[in-house]
Each structure stands twice: as structure tokens, then as C-alpha cells.
Amino acid sequence: MDEHVYKEEIGPKPSAFDGLTKKMLLLVDRIFGKRNKKSSHSNWIGRIAFVLILTAVVLFLVKGTYSKFFISAPESFVEEDIKPGDDESNSRYANDPTVATLSKKIDDLEEELKDFDLKNADLNKPVLDFDIDFKE
Amino acid sequence: MRMPEICKNSNTFFFLLRNCIKVRQMKKIILVLFLLAVNASFVHAQELDYERAYSDYLFKLEQYKSEHGEYVLAMASYLKSKTLTLQTKAEKETLEMLKSRDDVVATYLTAIRTKLQETSGLGKEEKDEVFLLLDTELKWYLDHKARMNEGDFLEDLVSKSLEAKTRYEIESKIAIYKALFTISKGESKFVRSRQEEILLEVKNKVEMIKNEGFKETAIIERWFRDIEERFEQSKNLELAAEEVMAKLTPKERNKDRVYQSGIGDIEGSLNKLKEVNDFLGEIVREIKR
Asked: Do B177 and B171 contact (CB within 8 A), yes or no?
């Protein structure tokens, strides 16, 4: 039997993908009941339904696993409260070492000022009893 | 000192004499250096810093609280039943409490002194003026403690306690408040001096940027004026605080109020400096933009 006859009577040579598809369809048959082998129409409906379900499951899993990527990243972007002009990436002085040093000095001072206790609470006067009296 | 074996050999005596002397001298020098090092480390260990002085004060304060509790009990017992035994017990507990009270004031004054010593931003004269006040008070309490002894009767102790009360209210509070005020003022001045340094550096950088011509600096230069204005306001508030504190004399009845008012102005001064810091941050962000 030559190649042409084979293709007409039996169909094209089955590939690995076809084998997998068949297995999937068998699985669909088991889940949704045996498909009608003669109806190519129901075959395609089954395939499309299966692919849709599979896509939905995959998307659900991916979204669940990488929820940070899908949800947190946009939120953190909003939270940063980016003001106009804060994009320093293209500036000539954005990475200037002198400016970076100055920025660090200011930040350090800011931190110190936060915890400043001008009243020196730990040095409050001691409470002492000066009223000594032995009269009733 | 034992001679090295080589020095005992007579044949080589003259030849080695000089070297042996050198060895002995070296030993002496090493010994002297060692003693100096030990002495230096000992002196260093004796230096009193704020942390140590403050923990001494807390220790004495706890001790005083305990002594005071015993004094209250002894006094109550004596007032309930005026026996000679209870009177003697009351005298003993009162004496110990009063001595402990003097210790608390003395260690408290010392803690403030060390804190002031370690405070940056103040000139020597400013510190010395307050040190003098604190040292005078410290000496008074040490003398007062030494003047109390076991032979004192209750009346004597009451009288000596009253002396301390008067001293504390009239003189010691002035020294304490002036010292606390000076510490706060020094901290505020130190922040300002650091900011002035940063401002100078920022100005130099902006001048350089201006000369390079890649960036418009007119806005930043206008912001410098705002910063200098805040510095002026901060200094004026400090001066106002000093004027307030000048009212702190022995005649002043409400010394607490005067101190609170003075420190309030210093807080105002510091708030201006916080604004300066925000402005400096804004300028740096503008430069980076």
C-alpha cells in the first residue's frame, strides 16, 4: 500500500500530539459520557469544552501561585505615591555621588530628628520627700 | 635585676658590657612603658560617662525609695507610741533616709553634668557657666550629708531636712533647669550646624550644576532663601528661650513654669529645623529630577 492510499483509507500518520489528544478525549468521555464516534460535530464541541476548562484551570492555578505578580505589583505601584518629576532614571544628576551623599546625610538627620527628646524625659527631676515632720 | 648569662662571661665582658647595659636599659624602658600603659588604662576606666553616671543615679534612687519606706514605718510607729526605743529607731531611719536623699540629688546633678559634658553644639563658656552652678550644688549636698551624724536628735534632723528643702527649691532647681535647658539648646544648635554644613554643600553642588548649564537652577536658588529664613526663625526662637530662662532667679517662685516656657521655645526652634530638613530633601530630589 502506497502512501497515498494509506492517507485516504486510514488517514494521516498519527503524531504524538494526536495520541495525547485521544487520551484527553477519552478522559472527557469518561467525565461527560461516551462520545458519539460517528458525529464529528460533538467531537469538536467536546474538544473545545475540554480546552476551555483546561485553560480556565491553568489560569486559576497560575493566578493563585503568582498572585503577587497579578495583584500586589499594581497595588504597590499605586501606593508609592509617585509625584510628577520623581522619575529620576533619565536625569543627569540622578546617580551623582555627591548628590547621593547629601541625600544620605539628610535622611540620617531625618531619622535622628524623629527620635528627638528635647525634654530629656529620662532626666526628669527625682520625686523626693522634703517634708519631714514628727509632729502629730 | 638578674644579669643575662652572656654578661657573666669574663672574656667577652668588655665587649658585651655595652650590649648588656643596653639589654638592661631596654628592660627598664619596657617596664616603664608597661606601667604607663596600665596607668593609662586605669585612668580611662575611672572616667565617668553619662551612661555610668545615670545608672549610679538610678541605683541611688532605688536605695532612697527603700530607705524612705523604712523611715515612714519608723515614723508611724514612733508617733503611735512615743517610747525611747522607737524614738531612737525613728532617728536612725530618718538619718539614713536623709543621707540617701542627699545621695540622690548628688548623683542626679552628676548625671546631668556628664550629659552636658557629652552634648555637642555648645561652646566651652556656655558649658562652664552651667558646670559652675552644678558643682556648687553638688558640693553643698556632699557637705550637707557629711554634717549629719548619728548623734543628731529628731529636731536636728528635721531642721537639716528643711535646709535641704530650701536649698533644693531656691538654688538647686535653677542649676538643674539651666543645665537641662542648655543640653536641649545644644542639641538643637548641633542639628542646625549640621544642616548649615549640608546647605553649604548643596549650594556648591547647585553652583556647579548651574555652571554646567544642563539644568535650570533658579527655583532651587529661590528655595535656599526659604531655608535661610527658617534658620533665622530658629535662632530667634533660641534667643527668646534664653531671655525666658534669664528670669530663672532665686526670687522666681514658679521656676517650673519658666523652664517649661523656655523649653517650649526650643521645641519651636527645632520644629523650624525639621522644616529645613524637609526642604533640603526636596532640593536634593529636584536636583536628581
From this structure: no
Residue B203 burial by Cβ neighbours in a 10 Å radius (0-12, 13-18, 19+) = middle
Point out the residue among B79, B105, B215 whose CB comes nearest to the CB of A92. B215
B18 in a domain, yes or no? no
In a domain, B10, yes or no: no
B122 Ramachandran zone, left/alpha/beta (phi>0; psi -120 to 50): beta
Evaluate if pTM is beyond 0.80: no
Total domains present in chain B: 1
Chains A–B, number of C-beta pairs less than 8 Å apart: 117
Nearest CA in chain A to B256: A125
Q: What is the ipTM of this complex?
A: 0.71
Residue B125 binned pLDDT confidence (cut-offs 50, 70, 90):
very high
- Tell me whether residues A129 and B68 touch, CB distance under 8 A: yes
CA distance B185 to B193: 12
Q: Is residue B116 part of a domain?
A: yes
User: What are the backbone angles phi and psi of residue A95, rounded to the nearest 5°?
Assistant: -110, 20
Separation CA B39–CA B235 (nearest Å): 45
